[in-house]
Specification:
Layout lengths: L1 H21 L14 E5 L2 H11 L3 E5 L14 H7 L4 E4 L8 H6 L7 E4 L30 H18 L4 H26 L6 E4 L6 H6 L3 E4 L11 H13 L4 E4 L6 H10 L2 E4 L8 H6 L3 H15 L4
Parallel strand pairs: 1-2, 1-3, 3-4, 5-6, 7-8
Helix pairs in contact: 2-5, 2-6, 5-6, 6-11, 8-9
């Protein structure tokens, strides 16, 4: 009899487990275990924004390999194959990714949702950058360095996730709201910190990357050359930047990530200035990627270096 009781008990347990497994999943999670969204982001800021919105509900990958300078990036056939199998492509704008139209022509994926993350953002025009013109033509593409723009970009990316996965709308919106609060707090921290600096001007020995940051915090900004990191500044331009450093009593010149700071070193050698990194966040190194470095991490470090370069109290 004891053996029969044990058998009946086992059968009851099995029946209970089957009943639980057949129950309907909660509305906000249905289908997430079976298939997560796949999204490809062209640049690091978009990758990090998307990760904060989707978290574990989507697989986010970076189109630009870690350590690669984005202005020289050219998509390969394998990238087109990858986009043919993904749900979403998130890019910055036509000036930052001038290859976007060409790559999309080769993508055989009618369901691919393409998100222009800078939709609704007014670009700095070339006339605001001393009339310089290059492969970016008229628009300054580095929009994410104004954190009010970054908030708009988060909303544009959020819209894409909601469109592709409406069941999890509330989840995405809550995550986006929390991340936008962090961006807003960072913006306020930059404003408060940089408003108390002795200097209101900074010079970058690289290309014109930080126009949005300078405009946001009421700073003057000069770069060695225009929007293209491949440009060569003339001796006259280098002399003018050296004169600016001396005239304004600046002790530091900034350089960018993933670009050899040859020009910044030249100016530093002529003026006695020290070099400081100012991260444009286009992309990060492989080591930073593996460490889990975030956009917010990069911007906090930028603020520390700006405090030094602008001689803040």
């Amino acid at each position: 009899m004891k053996a029969i009781h044990r058998i009946l008990l086992v059968l009851l347990l099995i029946a209970g487990l089957v009943a639980v497994s057949c129950q309907q999943k909660p509305e906000g999670t249905r289908g997430t275990e079976e298939k997560r969204l796949n999204a490809v982001a062209s640049l690091f800021p978009l990758y990090d924004f998307a990760r904060n919105i989707a978290r574990d509900r989507a697989e986010i990958t970076l189109l630009l390999p870690p350590g690669v300078e984005p202005h020289s990036f050219e998509p390969k056939p394998g990238d087109i194959v990858r986009l043919s199998k993904t749900d979403m492509l998130i890019y910055t704008n036509e000036y930052m990714e001038p290859w976007i139209d060409d790559i999309l022509k080769g993508v055989a994926n009618k369901d691919l949702l393409v998100i222009d993350s800078s939709k609704g953002i007014s670009l700095i025009e070339e006339t605001e950058e001393k009339g310089r013109s290059d492969e970016h033509e008229r628009g300054d593409p580095h929009v994410w360095l104004d954190f009010s723009n970054a908030i708009i970009m988060v909303d544009n990316i959020l819209e894409g996730f909601v469109k592709k996965d409406p069941v999890n709308t509330e989840f995405y919106r809550n995550n986006a709201a929390a991340y936008k609060a962090q961006l807003k707090a960072l913006d306020e921290k930059f404003e408060k910190t940089l408003s108390g600096c002795k200097k209101k001007i900074f010079i970058n020995g690289g290309h014109f990357t930080f126009g949005y940051l300078a405009r946001r915090y009421h700073l003057k900004y000069f770069s060695a050359y225009g929007f293209s990191p491949n440009a060569e500044p003339s001796p006259r331009e280098l002399a003018a930047l050296s004169a600016q450093l001396k005239r304004h009593g600046l002790k530091h010149i900034f350089y960018e990530e993933l670009i050899t700071p040859r020009v910044a070193r030249t100016i530093a050698g002529e003026t006695g200035a020290s070099l400081l990194m100012l991260h444009g966040a286009h992309n990060i190194s492989r080591e930073e990627f593996e460490r889990g470095t975030t956009f917010l991490d990069l911007m906090e470090k930028n603020l520390e270096n700006l405090k030094v370069g602008l001689q803040c109290r």
